[in-house]
Amino acid sequence: MEKSQRAGKRFQNIKQKNQKKRIHKRMKFKHIIILFFASILFLVLYSCKSKRQVVTSAPLEHKVDADLFSDVLNSQLNFKTFSSRLNLNLSSGTKSLSSKASLRIVKDKAIQLSVQPLFGVEMLRLYADTDSLVLLDRMNKRYVRESIKDVKKIYPVGFEYKTLQSLLTNHIFVSGQNDVIYADYDKFLSGRASDMYYLLKSVDDESGIEYSFEIDGNDRIASTRLFEPKENYSMDWRYGNFVKETYKAFPHKMEVALASEKRKVNVGLEFSGITLDENFDLQISIPRTYTRASISDIVKILTNN
Questions:
Q1: Is pLDDT larger for residue 50 or for residue 232?
Q2: What secondary structure does DSSP assign to the chain, as a single string?
Q3: Which of 10, 104, 196, 218 sits at 20 to 30 Å (Cα–Cα) from 151?
Q4: Are 282 and 110 contacting, i.e. CB atoms less than 8 angstroms apart?
Q5: Does residue 178 belong to any structural domain of this protein?
Q6: pLDDT tens string 198-246
Q7: What sign does the dihedral 287-139-134-250 (CA atoms) show?
Q8: Domain limits at 5?
Q9: What is the pTM of this model?
Q10: Is residue 59 part of a domain?
């Protein structure tokens, strides 16, 4: 009798211990689930918050020319390679194109823009290096390959490699130079464009092209303008939605207006998923089945006119 009672008590004790273990496991599991969802919620809230961290412009201060120029150089985004997803909008006359795209840059070497309007299928690829420009028209299986010098004969404003790279990355440039140094401030006339912007202005002695930069109170380039007075060519490149990338602010929105007496083209660029200093190289290969187009077809391909 006593043995059966002791056995019953042991059974009850074991049962109670097992129940406690199950309760403890359930509580531990619930705790893990709560922590898991709390972590997800934190990441979502943090990512949403980071997307809204647009850096607003500060009021202008009085600065001498050398200080303004050095502050602009120090505020520029530093990178070895640059890549980003894009929302691309292009319009000319009554024609327009909206598409997903991707931009990749190897600093001072090559630029590649891939236009992918549907399901990631590439329609156009634009490649530029220090010597040449290549455009692949995937839809019509044709290509354009010309030197930068020949491209400048058709549209002289902005088609130098260094200029194009600077425009896409919100950098200041000096016409005809590969690098910009602090002492280059004396190549610009400076002043105020308005109560909101400083103005840096210069002219290329060889081509006569005028180029200028509006600088905001945070020493960032708010707009770049190039103008060729003989043929009345112009390019206005405006920057907005500055967001911190590493320790420097970069514009996530760009609006470009290209104009000549015969044609006007507007381009909108919205950046997302910017990545800096990945290890990659850029090259271009042209399929053998593609037909070569003339240099005058570049604008026709882009505007579908």
A1: 232
A2: -HHHHHHHHHHHHHHHHHHHHHHHHHHHHHHHHHHHHHHHHHHHHHHHHHHT-B-PPPPP----HHHHHHHHHHHSPP-SEEEEEEEEEEEETTEEEEEEEEEEEETTTEEEEEEE-BTTB--EEEEEESSEEEEEETTTTEEEEEEHHHHHHH--SS-SHHHHHHHHHT----TT-S---GGGGGGSEEEESSSS-EEEEEE-TTT--EEEEEE-TTS-EEEEEEEETTTTEEEEEEEEEEEEETTEEEEEEEEEEEE-SS-EEEEEEEEEEEEES----------TTPEE--TTHHHHHHHT-
A3: 104
A4: yes
A5: yes
A6: 999 999 888 889 999 999 999 999 999 999 888 888 999 999 999 988 7
A7: negative
A8: 1-52
A9: 0.79
A10: no
Q: How far apart are CA 198 and CA 74, in angstroms?
A: 16
Q: Are residues 95 and 23 in the same domain?
A: no
Q: Does residue 28 sit in the same domain as residue 166?
A: no
Vertex 236, ends 234 and 242: CA angle to 5°?
165
72 and 47 share one domain: no
- Kindly state the tokens that stand for 4: 């059966």
Domain assignment present for 85: yes
Which tokens belong to 233? Answer: 């060519």
Judged on CB neighbours under 10 Å (0-12, 13-18, 19+), 136 is buried
Same domain for 16 and 101?
no
Residue in 234, 218, 202 with CA at minimum distance from that of residue 72: 218
Distance CA 218, CA 30 (A): 49
Residue that is last in its domain, among 28, 52, 76:
52
Q: Is the pLDDT of residue 8 over 60?
A: no
Query: For residue 76, which of 264, 282, 220 has the smallest C-alpha distance?
Result: 220
Whether residues 81 and 151 share a domain: the answer is yes
